Every structure is written in C-alpha cells, then in structure tokens.
Amino acid sequence: MKSIHVRLATTVLALLGYAADIDALDTCALRKLVAIGRHESRLLACQSKVATTNDTSNLSACDAAASGGFSKSFAAAGSWCVGDELNCGNTSGDCERAITAATTDTFPSACEAAKRNAAARLTKREMACYARARGSTLVDPGCVSRARERFSMDIAAAGTCPDGGSLQTVVENNCVNPAAVTTNDVGLVNSVCGACGVFLLAWGKYGSDEGQFNATLGIAVDGSGNVYVADIYNYRIQKFASDGTFTTRIGSGGDGDGQFNLPTDVAVDVSGNVYVTDGDHERVQKFTSDGTFLLKWGSFGTGNGQFSYPWGVSIDNNTGNVYVVDPNSNRVQKFTSDGTFLLSWGSHGSGEGQFDVPGHTAVDSNGNVYVTDGNQRVQKFTRDGTFLLSWGSQGNGDGQFYGPFGIAVDGNDNVYVADSGNDRVQEFTSNGTFVTKWYNEPSEARIDAHGALDVAVDRRGYIYVGNQYRVEKFAGCP
C-alpha cells in the first residue's frame, strides 16, 4: 500500500550527505571571473606589443602563454560552478579581436599601443568588480565607475588615433558583458560566459530547529519571493524570505487538521494560499500564507479524490485548479481550489500518457501540465489531460535523466527538471528542447550532495533547489 513511500524514503535516506562548502562554491565563480579578466588583459597586452613594434612574429607565442596561464587559473578555480573553459576562452578571443579591430593605425604606433593597454586594464578592472560581487552581493557601481574613470584618463594620455568610436563600449560589449552578465533590475552576477545557474546562496543543514531540515523533498515560491519547503521527516512546512531568513512554521506531527504525517510537497496559489500533500494521511491540506488551516480533502483509495500516498502538487494560476500526483495509482488528479474532484488521467505503463511512479507536476502560462515520470522522461499534457509530447530517456547526457523528480516552469515557460540521480538541474524549452544544465562533480562541494530533489522558480527568474538538508539559490538566465 505504501510502496512509493518505502521506495522514495529509502532512496532519500541512502543518499549520504555532507556540509558542502558555501564559500568554496562562491569562490569558484569569483576565481573564474578573475581568470577571464586576466586572460583578456594579457591577450590585449600581446596586441599592444604588435602595435608598438609592428612585428607579429612573437604574437602566437605570446597568445599561447596567455592562454596557458588562463587554463591553469581556470582549472584551479574549480569544476563545481558554472562557466566552461572553452566558452570562456572563446569569449576572451572575441574580446581580443574586437579591440584590435577598433584600434588600427599605421604601425608602429605608440598611441594605439597605449589604447590597447588601456583596454586591457579596463577589462581586468571591471571583471575584478564583478568578481568581488561574488554570490548574493550586488556589483558595486562605484568600482565600475572608478575603472571607467581610470580608462578615460589612460585614453586621454594615449593621444589621438583610431579607437572604434567608443573604445569603452567596445570593451564592455565584447569583453566584460559576455563573461559576467547582470540582471537589469539588480546587480547580481547571473552568468559566467553565457552559462546560467550561477550559485548565489544556500541555507539549512540536518536537524529539527528552525531553518534546519530532514529531507527537503518539496519546494515552492510565492509571488513575493517567499520560499516554502516541505520538511518531510520533521512533519512541517517551513517558510523563508528569499535570502533564507526563517519566517514561519506550518504544521507539526499528528493526525489533526494542520498536522502532518510526512508532508511530501507544497504549492502556493496567486492569493498566497498554501497547499500541502500529506502523504501518509492520504490527503491535501490548504492553509493561508501564515499557516492558518483552511480545509482538507482526500482519503486512502483508488477512487476519484482518493490517494495512495499523494506526492507532487501544483497550481494552474489562470484557473486556480490544483493538480496532485497520485504515484501508487500512476495518475494525476485535478481539483478545484476547494478540493472538488474534476478529472484524472494516467495508468501504469510506458506508453503515451502512462506512468511508472510519477513524481511532480508543474503548470505553464497556457495551462499545460508537465509531469516527471519514472520512465526517465517528462510528459506534457493539456489541462484536461490530453497527451501532447514527452522527452527524455535514461542516461546522463543532455536531455537524459536518471530519476527526474522535481519540476518547475518559469515566466517564459522554460521547464526546469531536478535530475536527482545525476545530481543536476536541466533546463528545457516548453517543447522539450535542451537549453542548459548545472551540476558539480561528486568529489567537490556541489549543487547537491544528496540528489537535486525539487526545484522552484520565482517571478524574477531565481531558481531554488531542494537538496535534502538545505536549499540552494541560483541566478537564472538573463
């Protein structure tokens, strides 16, 4: 009767955890940004020598030495944060080509050499400003302003010679912005050479105190950016501000209204009401945002509105309807916000619209429903359960899964899947086209020491991942 409970609980408890080094994760991205800035600066210094001497015979050796130093610095930064060496190296190469194209004159030219050196110093200084911002700290505009002021003085001292119109713009558009991108409304670094998923912060550890967890198997975010976590073996939902500050506890162990026996997932509607799947009680409970109990529905069974250990829960923000995964019955059930049964779909199997222990659901802006399926795939349905498409197979390649579990959809209908067995999150378009991924090597501090179990995305694109004993926050794509 409780096979899914035993199966999933065993999986969770078998995933041995350790306290990942938050500072190491933070420092990894910092060091990569510094390495990129130095690489670009050294490549431009090589070009400055060409402008000084009009001799290119040593250019290849100079570039090779700069790139060799970059490879060593990049490797030393670590492999557990985003930023691919090849992509970042290509960014540096694009920077070099853009600056040399903008600073052409009859060589030798002391003026052009000085301008190329000025560009080298600007990119190094601005990248250092971005690196100092690190995880959740905003980029200091004063740091960038000082770098630009020094650059202006360097350009004035260089004299008059071609500079592409605005060399500062050329540097920032071709050297700085492609390597470290910030969002428009806040100054957080959210990309390293175009790779999404920059680590920002984390909170939580094993325990039962406020802000501690014993299996974070469900996570949701409300319209104000508050984060709700289903803390399954502590029999509660914990609510946090977006920076991880604890604010509210909902529920306790027990059989009464507002009490839980293994809360498996949580969802929040546009009004801030909170829905919790209460696994061993075979029901869904609804609360206000401050934890006041409102209503409940469900009982054990296979009939309409009954459950056999309900798991994932999600909300259609356009209609307020609630979707609940009923994994032991291999189906998804749809309800109104007051628990009135509407319809269900699914059966056991591997065909279209069939499931092998479905895990979580998410709903996009058009009301389409995405379901993670133990057949190592994601299936997409209309809001009435009509099958649309599926993607995925078993493996660790792009678009493959080994235990897809949590799932979320952002404001652009991009789909994020917690690929638990591969310790990563993968991002897809709404039709299943692979976009990107982020994860880390098992030997290092990483996105998840215990399997990425659930994922949620807030209205500003920040991504939250539940990792058994903690929550990690990442910046999404610009």
Keywords:
478 residues; 28% helix; disordered N terminus; 26 strands; alpha+beta; single chain
Account of the 3D structure:
The chain is an alpha+beta fold and 478 residues long. The protein is built from seven helices and 26 strands. The strands form seven sheets. It has a four-stranded antiparallel beta sheet with strand order 3-26-25-24. The longest helix is centred in the N-terminal third of the chain and has 32 residues.
Principal-axis shape equals: elongated
Give the total of beta strands: 26
Give the amount of beta strand, in percent.
25-35%
Largest beta sheet: what is the strand line-up? 3-26-25-24
Instruction: Specify Rg, calculated over alpha carbons.
Output: 26 Å
The share of residues in helices is 25-40%
Low-pLDDT stretches are 1-25, 440-449
Mean pLDDT: 87
Largest sheet: 4 strands, antiparallel
Category from helices, strands and their pairing: alpha+beta
Please tally the helical runs, counting DSSP H or I stretches of 4 or more residues.
Answer: 7
Distance, first to last CA: 45 Å
Describe the SSE topology.
Blueprint: H1 3-14, H2 22-53, H3 59-77, H4 85-102, H5 110-133, H6 141-158, H7 167-176, E1 180-182, E2 189-192, E3 198-203, E4 216-221, E5 227-231, E6 236-240, E7 246-250, E8 263-268, E9 274-278, E10 283-287, E11 293-297, E12 313-315, E13 322-326, E14 331-335, E15 341-345, E16 361-363, E17 369-373, E18 377-381, E19 387-391, E20 404-409, E21 415-419, E22 424-428, E23 434-439, E24 454-457, E25 463-466, E26 471-475
Antiparallel strand pairs: 1-2, 3-26, 4-5, 5-6, 6-7, 8-9, 9-10, 10-11, 12-13, 13-14, 14-15, 16-17, 17-18, 18-19, 20-21, 21-22, 22-23, 24-25, 25-26
Helix pairs in contact: 2-3, 2-4, 2-5, 4-7, 5-6, 5-7
